[in-house]
Design brief:
Bound molecules: zinc ion
Number of domains: 2
Number of helices: 12
Largest sheet: 4 strands, mixed
Oligomer: single chain
Strand order of the largest sheet: 4-1-5-6
């Protein structure tokens, strides 16, 4: 469930609205400035009033927050993702300065209800319950694949759903389809050949076509092999997802198109480094890794 889809907030208009989006404690709990410090830093107007960042459309409103630049660090992206849970449906009630929230049309709750709901949702989706967590790869990569699998990465489809204004919903790498998490990672014509190359390299059946991010992660369980070998395969598949996302961001924010070969080389290099530093197969040498000649090392 998405909390933000079910929330209606009401606020006063005119001079009564002085509440500042980043600075004031209007959403219970922490002020956004403290909750999203990385985003606060790149916010164009740090004094913006809540009422001023909302544009009224017919029955809904659009949040318009200006940025000095797009998020570019892991911390900033994590905060960006979390901010997508912001209530996005704000209605103005004349001559009133109260904020109210409505959940599920069943009744109205005070604003205090919201952060609890958000915490509740996060608990449901905690990384502890994420069965694909892989201790050989960095937490940021685990975090990314988990968010991608539950469609909580800032692709255009998700931003549009959350009424964040963007110019063009198409995937910039193919300019043909709407950009969703599954499209970027699996469906894009620029991603498919990379999966093919990786499966060939891993010496596993190559007829597999991944439609969704979860297909990629579930794929490992369908293969026959030892637990350790499967963990190596899982490492490579998650590294592939991560590198496809990085390639997407380079296109999106810098206009660079990376070649398929370049992406594949990066996947091999990243997974090699991570296995060397964390796994039990630290003795693997690069020459054998690029040939995926590991059967006698991995039990
Ligand atoms: Zn595409």
């Amino acid at each position: 469930m998405s909390v933000s889809d079910e929330i209606v907030a009401e606020a006063g208009t005119g001079n009564t609205v002085k509440v500042k989006f980043w600075i004031d404690n209007w959403c219970n709990g922490k002020r956004f400035k403290e909750r999203f410090p990385g985003l606060f830093k790149i916010a164009r107007n740090k004094q913006v009033k809540v009422a001023k960042c909302v544009t009224k459309l017919e029955n809904e409103n659009q949040w318009n927050l200006g940025w000095v630049r797009p998020p570019n660090s892991d911390a900033e992206w994590a905060q960006w993702w979390n901010m997508l849970y912001l209530p996005n449906n704000v209605r103005f009630k004349p001559e009133s300065d109260t904020w109210m929230w409505k959940l599920n049309n069943n009744g109205e709750f005070t604003v205090a209800a919201i952060p609890k709901q958000i915490v509740k949702e996060d608990v449901l989706e905690t990384a502890d319950e994420w069965k694909h967590w892989n201790s050989w790869i960095p937490p940021k990569v685990n975090y990314f694949t988990w968010r991608a699998a539950i469609e909580r990465i800032p692709v255009k489809k998700e931003l549009i759903k959350r009424r964040i204004p963007i110019d063009n919903q198409l995937c910039l790498r193919c300019e043909e389809e709407e950009e969703s998490a599954d499209h970027v990672i699996c469906g894009c014509i620029r991603s498919k050949p990379i999966w093919k190359s990786i499966l060939v390299w891993l010496k596993v059946p190559t007829y597999t076509q991944f439609e969704r991010c979860t297909d990629v992660l579930e794929h490992v369980t369908s293969l026959s092999g030892s637990k350790e070998w499967k963990k190596v395969i899982n490492t490579v598949l998650q590294t592939t997802m991560w590198n496809l996302w990085k390639a997407r961001n380079e296109m999106e924010f810098k206009g660079n198109i990376r070649s398929g070969n370049n992406i594949v080389e990066n996947i091999m290099a990243d997974s090699f480094i991570w296995l060397k530093s964390k796994s039990k197969i630290q003795n693997i040498v690069w020459e054998r890794w690029v040939d995926f000649n590991i059967r006698d090392i991995v039990k």
